[in-house]
Prior knowledge:
Immunoglobulin-like, 33 strands, 7% helix, homodimer, mainly beta, six-stranded mixed β-sheet, 592 residues, 6 helices
Amino acid sequence: MCLYRxxxxxxxxxxxxxxxxxxxxxSRAEAAVLEYDWVVGYLAAAPDxxxxxVIAINGQFPAPTIHAVEGDTLVVKLKNNLPTEGxxxxxxxxxxxxxxxxxxxxxxxxxxxxxxxTFTYKFVVDRAGTYFYHGxxxxxxxxxLFGLLIVSLPSGKTEPFSYDGxxxxxxxxxxxxxxxxxxxxxxSSIPFQFVGEPQSLLIQGRGKYNCSLDxxxxxxxxxxxxxxxxCNATNPACAPFVLPVQPGKxxxxxxxxxxxxxxxxxxxxxxxxxxxxxDGRYVEPFVVDNLDxxxxxxxxxxxxxxxxxxxxxxxxxxxxxRKPATxxxxxxxxxxxxxxxxxxxxxxxxxxxxxxxxxxxxQAQKYSAKKGLESAxxxxxxxxLIFLMTQSIINGYTRWAVNNISQVPSATPLLAAFKxxxxxxxxxxxxxxxPPQYTNNKHFDIFATPNPNTTHASLGNGVYVSKLGxxxxxxxxxTNTLVPNNSEIHPWHxxxxxxxxxxxxxxxxxxxxxxxxxxxxxxPLRNTVAVFPYGWVAIRFIADNPGVWPFHxxxxxxxxxxxxxxxxxxxxxxxxxxxxxLGCGLTKPTRW
Amino acid sequence: MCLYRxxxxxxxxxxxxxxxxxxxxxSRAEAAVLEYDWVVGYLAAAPDxxxxxVIAINGQFPAPTIHAVEGDTLVVKLKNNLPTEGxxxxxxxxxxxxxxxxxxxxxxxxxxxxxxxTFTYKFVVDRAGTYFYHGxxxxxxxxxLFGLLIVSLPSGKTEPFSYDGxxxxxxxxxxxxxxxxxxxxxxSSIPFQFVGEPQSLLIQGRGKYNCSLDxxxxxxxxxxxxxxxxCNATNPACAPFVLPVQPGKxxxxxxxxxxxxxxxxxxxxxxxxxxxxxDGRYVEPFVVDNLDxxxxxxxxxxxxxxxxxxxxxxxxxxxxxRKPATxxxxxxxxxxxxxxxxxxxxxxxxxxxxxxxxxxxxQAQKYSAKKGLESAxxxxxxxxLIFLMTQSIINGYTRWAVNNISQVPSATPLLAAFKxxxxxxxxxxxxxxxPPQYTNNKHFDIFATPNPNTTHASLGNGVYVSKLGxxxxxxxxxTNTLVPNNSEIHPWHxxxxxxxxxxxxxxxxxxxxxxxxxxxxxxPLRNTVAVFPYGWVAIRFIADNPGVWPFHxxxxxxxxxxxxxxxxxxxxxxxxxxxxxLGCGLTKPTRW
Lengths: 592, 592
């Protein structure tokens, strides 16, 4: 048995490529089956030079980057080695056509994987692009359970842009020193205890708590603060992430954010970035010198190493939309053959002023679909949903609600509930298509601080059901929070779909006039879109993917207190559901 | 829905007595059904005046004490409100005859209860006595998930001892500031990181971290240490637990320990204690001035308030068997009408010297069954198992093993595996009945430090299977740990059974001669017995309870790294297993 176990252990750390066609890994012409053996477990790590327990895959934080080719089948055998916690992994941006049960959202597409169980995800990555995977049970993503999923084009297909330097990628995140259990407790306490601002910003899982604050303009990252003793630049464990480039070359840089709370701004000093793709879809190229990246979003940008090659340059990440209380996250753009330890002689780069929302809205409006490569939306929709997001007090608890429903999980996966007609698993009253506030009070003021005693919100888990093929518009309407003069950025992510972003607006959406501003010609396709303070965003999608799909704010503490919805479509065409996804709630076995 | 939820919320906190015969709650002649609605969730608490997150029931730590009457049926509806963790509750000391699926050990009697699920335990408390309930999934008990279960005699039956003052109870525990997740990570790391000594000792969930150290002989518990600012005696949140007594009266005091690691010694200064019951079984009374209480054990003692009534007295708890690094846990015996804030004028009481094991062995040997009230054991047994406990290194991990098998959980509840013949759920090779070490090396030296490279131990989850009615003897043999000159106390607890403690011995158990020292006349019946350093203990039980029952060390970090075994008996007479206990591992539904 010992020998057997040793072999198993060895296998766990070797992702095996079962079928490889001729050509390099990222330029195959035929699809392959990529098999991974993963173990989810705790890990003692110090991503920002402060010791903390993270949830890791195969002992790695961030979790290992997957490299696949469009059309490949991924087979991920996931062993849950957490002693008491269930787990599930969402494949963020993957459409899961025909495999909605492997979308990985706990209690929606599957039961949590129990401690000690092994669960096999198997699905096709049907479109090249930059995606993610991450824990999707309560706040496990915030514990570090996330990684990049990079899907390349097969040989024979070419990108609509060119670069001669190669591929680079950076996964951005914010980082908290408090455990997720304490964060979850605080969010579900009376009085409400918010998670607060993150302690650090990480680039590819590396940051420096409280160190960059002390960074002298022309000096090193070493500091005299006792907290920073270990995070001087000569400590390899705390060295910043390095992006090496050859002078004169152009690179494709993939950038994605798995932030808990923060909207991030990404900048490389002295360098422009040409945006060419977003969320795995091509966009008409445009040039920026700093890039807004909201949680759940990914970008591809072209970067040319065209600056003075005798020095290195800072890569900097800053918080947008919330008063910054977190130092700039730093990495190094290394001009080869300079040493990676050659620190740039300049101060840490700053983005736009945190509350200059006009800048962010303007950048968001620059996106349009790449002509000839992305489809245009249907010119009309079958229905319009208006989602009014409000912060409410429900039974003393501070919650977020959409049209007065604050989402709570069902104990039964909703996909199985639809498939097996387990109607008692969730609220059978459909959630409101329009804000009840508009009916009760036509003059609902999105700029006013709501009176928590009159919000009338309640907990619920009803589902928006669409007919197969239906074209649905959703307008997400922002409001003032319970804090006077405060409205926040919310990046909404849709599982199982890309949607067209038809337009953004300030103030209250007006169904008669606001629609006139829509871009129906070449709106960008995305899976995650930001709603800006006191504004709205309009999206359109086609309900053509039989399944049950969450659509929710990607800010983890917001989702945890209810800022989410669930859509079901094609429920008469749901596929057979594998047994391994069942066993909880109403899907326990009944016939032994 | 809001009103409905409010009613549910109100109900959650009212344990409802569905059937009450004539007479007081603790003196009913007829059995009742007691129904409880419980919610398991996180709670911010400061049991020793240091803030920590605990796992609580209905917001209480320790969890609420259950008061029942012999023959009652308990119905506990348990809602798991933990965001990511499963949970299960073991009813420690309850035999679960006919209901082995409600014993509450995760992956043995049931699947963990998933987040959001409600699980209903329903079983008869068939014998008066002092019992416990506690979490039995990984180390959740250590997070504070435990409470007392007190079962009284029905009216018409009388105790074989008398007291005129009433009933008192104290639940003892040790307390760690590190989270269980961090403890679990350390125990499963290379190199091994032990949990270390506890920070505090709690009496009925109350202690004072680092305060009692500074206690002046004639003064108050206030201290000048910054850590102790909040834990002076005038802070009600940090006030010690109080046992109020009327001078001259005699009380029945129930004492139980849910300690993580520590063997405890309980003492009330100036007062003798007359021991009358242990683990719910009557013993011949004997008098002590300090009482050893091992984790998982309970005692009833008679206490007479016969001292100077003008003062109060310290109740003190100290660590035995490990070099103390934890201050004495303190409560107050309050002589009414003195104020409960009248602190005793004396230093904290001390127990015996920590490593005077002879004192502990001598006290353990004082126990004998109460004549006429407890049965004698069968005079012979059908088989003898010898369990050699060794500390081992397996694949680099520090583990405990029994006969070279270090227990790992199955992903499938073993009870269901036996019932449904899911033989791939666990190792089909039965674990060794005798130590392989004795075969390989007849001169195995229990006093020597084992060479971790030659222990040949391996991970496993095989089961000891007994025929129904079989009489089984088990000898648990202690050894030296991997630390030179170190052997530790291990309290072994059996689920589903009381067993006779036939005898204790020093050194190596000798099947030919050691048995001659057995007490077969009136050995005490117990469910938890301590094995002393470099010694052995012999027990006898009758395999007459169809089910699958863990028998393991009750020291949580020892169990976590493998110091446990599982017994199955009457496997052809296993009852129908409720669906709610299934759904994990191989018990997922297959026919939808």
